[in-house]
Design goal:
The complex is a heterodimer. By secondary structure, chain A is mainly α. Chain A is 75% helix and 0% strand. Chain B is extended and about 75 Å long. Chain B has helices at residues 2-30, 34-54, 58-83, 96-118, 137-145, 149-170, 175-180. Classes of the chains: A mainly alpha, B mainly alpha.
């Protein structure tokens, strides 16, 4: 493998996951929460691709593509929810969405 | 000699892409205008595609740019444009205690992930040799249609269900339903 070895890629992957997790925990706008979720998914995707390269099998890349499809599905539903909430004239703030609370 | 020059070049591209990746990730999380956050995520996804290319995952890199940085982000930008000023996401709000707890939790998660990934990482210093067709669309397609056929089919069902869900969420409620709600 030319250039950096596997641990360098893994460090970037871990940092991306942590940045995304901080975004999900700290921000209150559902749009930014969704964007941060995408960063977390991509951090895990990078680890999958790296290990796929390390072991010389394409299984990890197949898994990464499946993760991409699931992320697209999640964005589809998430953005639909955000638009539905905005149409009801509610404030876009995840802390205020408590209607489902038992 | 030629190999070492190539190595230095790969290192330079890798460092550039990794820096861009982390910087744009931090920008996504910190900026208050969601439009700029979405643009930051496009930069993040593109620089990740460069990292995928360096890890000889050509097809995943192409899919990343086409599907993610293309289609998904266009959908994001449409929704942000539709919401207009209401989409702005100031940092205000939330109790101080909650925010400190969130930072501690995020930091602990980050440290845990790094330790788990890098613990005894010297075992990972020698990667397997791969041929020139590694990560090509043909190889990935063959893997999808033989070993991972079930995952392939289930993914299609997941996408169908999500599309139906998006349509259901987007249905405009009729006026009489609106008044009873």
């Amino acid at each position: 493998m030319m250039g950096p070895s596997v641990p360098f890629y893994l460090a970037i992957s871990g940092c991306l996951f942590g940045i995304g997790a901080l975004g999900v925990l700290l921000r209150r706008s559902p749009l930014i929460v969704l964007l941060s979720l995408e960063i977390m998914l991509n951090g895990s995707n990078l680890a999958l691709v790296t290990f796929s390269r390390h072991f010389g099998t394409v299984d990890g890349q197949v898994f990464a593509i499946s993760v991409m499809a699931v992320a697209a599905a999640e964005v589809c539903v998430g953005l639909g929810l955000i638009v539905a909430i905005a149409r009801k004239k509610l404030t876009l703030d995840v802390d205020l969405f408590s209607e489902l609370r038992g | 000699m030629i190999a070492s020059v190539g190595n230095v070049l790969v290192w330079m591209v890798w460092v550039g892409a990794a820096t861009a990746c982390l910087a744009s990730g931090i920008a996504v999380v910190t900026l208050t205008n969601p439009f700029f956050s979405a643009l930051g995520l496009i930069g993040n996804l593109s620089s990740l595609a460069v990292l995928y290319l360096l890890a000889s995952a050509e097809f995943v890199a192409a899919a990343q740019v086409l599907v993610y940085a293309g289609a998904v982000m266009v959908m994001f930008l449409f929704v942000i444009a539709y919401l207009g000023g209401r989409a702005d996401a100031p940092w205000a709000g939330g109790s101080k205690l909650f925010r400190i707890a969130a930072v501690v939790t995020g930091g602990a998660l980050l440290a845990e992930t790094l330790v788990a990934l890098l613990w005894k990482s010297s075992r990972l210093s020698h990667s397997a040799a791969v041929g020139p067709t590694f990560g090509s669309p043909a190889e990935i397609g063959r893997s999808f249609l033989t070993d991972h056929l079930l995952a392939f089919e289930v993914t299609s069902i997941v996408l169908l269900v999500a599309a139906i869900g998006g349509v259901v969420l987007g249905i405009q409620p009729s006026p009489e339903e609106e008044t009873t709600a």
